[in-house]
Amino acid sequence: MIGRHRGHRPLEFKDVGSHDGPLLVVEDLHTSFRTGRGTVRAVDGVSFEVHEGRTLGIVGESGSGKTVLSRSIMGLLPPRDVIRSGTVHFGGHELSSMSETQLRAVWGAELSMIFQDPMTALNPVKRIGVQIAESLVLHLDMDKKEAQTTAVELLRSVGIPSPEERVRWYPFQLSGGMRQRVMIAIALACAPRLVLADEPTTGLDVTVQAQILDLLADLQRERHMAVILVTHDLGVVATRADDIIVMYAGRIVERAPTRILFSDTKMPYTRALMDSIPRLADPSGARLDAIAGRPPDLIHPPPGCRFAPRCQYAQDKCRESEPPLRTVGSPDHLFACWFPLVDGVSTAPPVKVGIGRSDRPAAAVDTPDPEASA
Amino acid sequence: MPDDRELQDTGASNQLLGDRFPGMAATDEAIMAVSTEHNEGDDILARKPLGFLFWFAVVWVAVVFLAAILANLLPLQDMNFQNYSALNQGPSSAHWLGTDDLGRDLLSRLIFGSRVSLVVGFCGVAIGLLVGGTAGLVSGYKGGKLDISLNAVSFIILAFPAIVAVIAIVTFWGASLFHITIILGVGTIPLMFRVIRASSLSFAQRDFVIAAKTMGATDTRIVFREILPNVVPVMVTFSLITVAGIIVIEGTLAFLGLSVHLPIPSWGNLINEGTSNNALATNPYILMWPALSMFLLLWSINLIGDRLRQRFDIREGLL
Predict the structure, then answer these.
(1) Which of A112, A350, B101, B257 has the fewest CB atoms below 10 angstroms from its CB?
(2) B229 part of a folded domain
(3) If we measure between CA atoms, which residue out of A114, A179, A211, A171 comes closest to residue B17?
(4) Is A163 on the interface with B (CB under 8 A)?
(5) Which comes out higher in pLDDT, residue A14 or A66?
(6) What ipTM goes with this model?
(7) Based on the structure, what is the number of domains in chain B?
(8) Three-state DSSP state, A227
(9) Is the pLDDT reported for residue A148 higher than 80?
């Protein structure tokens, strides 16, 4: 019902539709921030593709660079003290070299973003209908009346009851879940090809989270959009993403179609992330399997594998040289680990007594005999 | 989607939504229902009455402005006639507010004086708001070199001894109501700039501004449509304080002979007369009437603004 507006779209940028190949191609993207202490490499050589209509999940802890990555793709970084290299192609056009004026024609119309906190991402002093209608007037050349009618339709499509009345409401009159629906309506107003959802449900309570994600999935199917879902919660992407990228310390450590990622996890970090999800079946009082330690300092990242200091299977080799992103078997499944897990157990040789760290007794227990796993 | 609309109209949409989004009835719908109760009908703002003080303030503001506009038509005594048989008198039926040390009628001086003060005060602030406010909005949002240079300029103007500048300008340009308004207006530009810039800066990096940007909004649009409405409360409050400030400064200038020439009165120079020549001890009325009028005027405007904001502020609202 919204898609029909594509007909009188005034932008030439609509050409992206005719482009063959992936909708979004990110190649060797680096984003660093100059700070007083040194250069923080927040995103360090990330490459991936997103195909039309697909969902990509980007997962990682706080500080793994996922938010910087999404802002970097959008071109929303602050103008100063940022070093960005690598390329971002969107529908065959290179976003990374566009001026802000050129980007403005793409933003909202072709590429839009859903923000984490719907409490702050809506202007508190403007009626929600006005906020939705603005981009319609801007990008689709609608007159005010037409835009207002479309805003009502959009509100209805995101499941807001009696939208005719609610278009005149202010954000404070809506609950958090409703506001996030409004955010989605704004982001989808001009029927973009790709939506970047940066932790769209983190600010919401759990019952509403599922509704919002289902809504997003429904609308995505209806409009054939591609979605990049950035989150720290593997559970959120598990059922909704086609492919998942796991990020750690600014790099991709594992990338696979969702089913393969869960059935054949290669990277101990991904495994640890999965294990850290609390289960209802656990007896009450059971300790959570948190990942020990903290993400590394991105000004001076550790040599070798960046996860090595926290990895229970880490070997000398891991601490010395950095594992490349590689495949074994399935070409879709990339991972960066010298000793990938096979059927959930590490291929690393057992830690020798005396060398193994005393603060990690679990390593010796969990590490199976190499003969057994080989 | 005509079906959808029909469902909506018959109220069956909730059922539809319940099917599509299980659990919604329990959460968002409940909140919606509560909100709707408070916001019966179309008028979401119909709430408690504004109160006596509010209407008193409205009446006072109206009286002051009407008196200033209609001063020539009112049956007032000559503001400059010096009645030496009635010096320093208190309020009486002949002189409602009394007379000053030269026997002039204080009521007519107060009313004619309000003309100068209101023009200088409000027009001066308008100039400051227009230039300083716009610069502050843009500077706070854009940042960078523009912000640094505008900041530097504002500090230079603020650092310059104002009285010396005014003496120099008035000497060469001549003292008139128009000139004084311009000079004082320009003087408030850096003040307005600093306050509004700070407020604009605090909104510039908010998510809703970035969100507007990701929807393709231009900088001009962001500054005037996203940031400005949020800055308005600060703007109004600070402007009212500045109006009072300018009215008093105009009085000081008049005292120095740098403003509208005596004996043309203004609230500022009435206040000055009231504090000079030991007048405070012999005849406090000279000071009291203009000071009281100004206090009441500014208090009234503030109160009106405050009550209206309470009623219309979509951020405080019901919550």
Answers:
(1) B257
(2) yes
(3) A211
(4) yes
(5) A66
(6) 0.73
(7) 1
(8) strand
(9) yes
Average pLDDT over residues A205-227: 88
- Selected for mutation to probe chain A from B8, B28, B38 (highest A CB count within 10 Å) is B28
∠ CA A267-A66-A50, nearest 5°, is 80
CA distance A329 to chain B (A): 40
Q: Tell me, yes or no, whether B306 lies in a domain.
A: yes
pLDDT of residue B25: 42
pLDDT higher than threshold 80 for residue B318? no
A9 vs B contacts (CB less than 8 Å): none
Q: How far is it, in rounded angstroms, from Cα A299 to Cα A249?
A: 10
CB contact under 8 A, B144 and A79: yes
How many CB pairs below 8 Å do chains A and B form together? 125
Domain boundaries, chain A: 3-241, 251-373
Partner residue facing A125 (CB), from B24, B29, B230 = B230
Cβ within 8 Å, pair B17-A159: yes
Whether residue B87 lies inside any domain: the answer is no
Structural domain boundaries enclosing B284: 106-312
| pTM (two decimals) | 0.73
B294: CATH:
1.10.3720.10
Q: Does A109 touch chain B (CB under 8 A)?
A: yes
Whether B34 is covered by a domain: the verdict is: no
Q: Contact A122/B319, CB-based, under 8 Å?
A: no
Q: What is the pLDDT of residues A317-343, one digit of tens each?
A: 888 888 988 888 788 899 998 888 887
Mean pLDDT score of chain A, rounded to an integer? 83
Distance of alpha carbon A152 from the chain centroid? 29
A359 pLDDT higher than 50:
no
Architecture of domain A251-373: 3-Layer(aba) Sandwich (3.40)
Q: Is B179 exposed, middle or buried (0-12, 13-18, 19+ CB in 10 A)?
A: middle
CATH number of this structure's domain A3-241 = 3.40.50.300
B161 cis-preceded (ω within 30 degrees of 0)? no
Structure tokens at A235: 């559970």
Say yes or no: B212 contacts chain A, CB-CB below 8 A: yes
Q: What is the pLDDT of residues B14-30, one digit of tens each?
A: 444 444 444 444 444 44
Task: Give the C-alpha distances (Å, rounded to integers) separating B195 from A235, B79, B140, B146, B225.
Answer: 47, 39, 10, 17, 19
Strand partners, A246: A59, A254
Angstrom distance (rounded) from CA A61 to CA B298: 54
pLDDT tens for A270-286 read: 988 888 887 777 787 77
DSSP string computed for B221-246:
HIIIIIIHHHHHHHHHHHHHHHHHHH
